[in-house]
Amino acid sequence: MEFSLTDGKGKKFQFPVNPEEVTISRQKGFDTTTILSYGEFDFPQGEKVKEISFSSFFPKEYNPAYCTYEDIPDPQEAMNTLNGFLLSKSPLRFIITETAVNVPVIVASHNSTFRGGEYGDVNFDLSLRTWSEMKVAKKAGSGAKSATVNKKPRTDMKEKKKTYTVKSGDSLSKIAKLELGDSSQWSRIYQLNKKVIGQNPNSIKPGQKLVLS
């Protein structure tokens, strides 16, 4: 099972240690209207924004007992990455493999904790909120212009496909490291370009145009 956040450019950040538990909060929204002589009435307006929260830590050193992969990030760099996500105005995609969780989110809060006796490790609490695009559309009316807000979730938040032209001396792992920041993503690039590359992932040729996301 993997916990990861991926930005619109396809850059993936995988959490090195899976949390022990994840809390997903759901609440149905209501529009309250007061009717004279009858009091207040609640009219359901659909499900409110979900909040996803969990806690884990960034270990200073790899330990196969709890780390999900070997090439773990430096705790300070990982913490800075989460801070960058918090400040970003663009949505991310949060995925928990082997589950149905695959949703666009924004980072709502990120708290870090340093504990004595755990030199170099960084503990954190993370809160995510599911994201949907707000669209303003013109509404026909008599005289003055009016507008309505369409809250229909945006189904495709990805940017235009990112491509790369192979150069002499390139390999898929080298391209994955330079363009996606993670050499282990070479297999993903290969799957996206299998028809172009052929059966051997090591047989890429200069001039080939590869899709990265």
From TrEMBL:
At the top level, the lineage of the source is: Bacteria
Recorded hits in SUPFAM superfamilies, A to Z, give: LysM domain
Supply the Pfam families for this chain.
LysM
Looking at the record, the residues that make up the LysM domain are 162-212
Stretches the record annotates as Disordered: 142-162
- InterPro entries, per database record: Bact_Kbp, LysM, LysM_dom_sf
Instruction: Kindly give the SMART domains that the UniProt entry links to this protein.
Output: LysM
Q: What is this protein called?
A: LysM peptidoglycan-binding domain-containing protein
